[in-house]
Amino acid sequence: GAGVSQSPSNKVTEKGKDVELRCDPISGHTALYWYRQSLGQGLEFLIYFQGNSAPDKSGLPSDRFSAERTGGSVSTLTIQRTQQEDSAVYLCASSITWGVTNYGYTFGSGTRLTVV
Amino acid sequence: GESVGLHLPTLSVQEGDNSIINCAYSNSASDYFIWYKQESGKGPQFIIDIRSNMDKRQGQRVTVLLNKTVKHLSLQIAATQPGDSAVYFCAENMAAGNKLTFGGGTRVLVKP
Fold first, then answer.
1. How far is A97 from A45, CA to CA, in rounded Å?
2. Which site among B50, B54, B93, B99 would you substitute to test the A interface, given the most A Cβ atoms closer than 10 Å to its Cβ?
3. Are B66 and B54 within 8 A, CB to CB?
4. pLDDT tens digits for A33-74?
5. Residue B32 is nearest to which of A45, A98, A100, comparing CB atoms?
6. How many angstroms away from the CA of B52 is the closest CA of chain A?
7. Sign of dihedral through CA atoms B59, B71, B45, B50?
8. What does the DSSP 8-state code read for residue B7?
């Protein structure tokens, strides 16, 4: 597609439920990144994919968080047994290749997750 | 300044004046830097970048300055406009690294 697409744009869930967040990167972009942005904060790195593999998942905050990418395209970020501290905007970005090249990443508009 | 909880450092500027946003980066091995602009409800958007072999780079109404000695980056916006109101983030990438590390952000409010 023309840009990075994320769905849903907003998600309200009850504490303890599982959620899945979806990211559709720019066509042809091999690298995909997930970041988390808590209210009024900067961007916290979660995980990065090169193709379907995740060489760097160092930012995942706990084993409740997991992510996968299939077909070198769409990625899903899954949060199990959600907690209130998981409330944040989850941002996905893609770039044409791994590593950081000119112009950095193209970001989606994010999924705002609220755990009640 | 540093962001603390909900309180991003805020720069209030009169429309038409110049804005200067500062960022202290953390890693002396970083060799590529980007400024992003984030408007409410949107993802960050690329503004301008600079590599460590440069100390200044200019774009349209924006200039980025890099001081590697003190690990400091700044973004200058000339003739600030209402559409410049947003949160601005600096980001750094370590040489041969695979991801950008973001600073805490500065909110710019443009007063008419």
1. 18
2. B99
3. yes
4. 999 998 877 899 999 998 899 888 889 999 999 999 998 899
5. A100
6. 13
7. positive
8. B
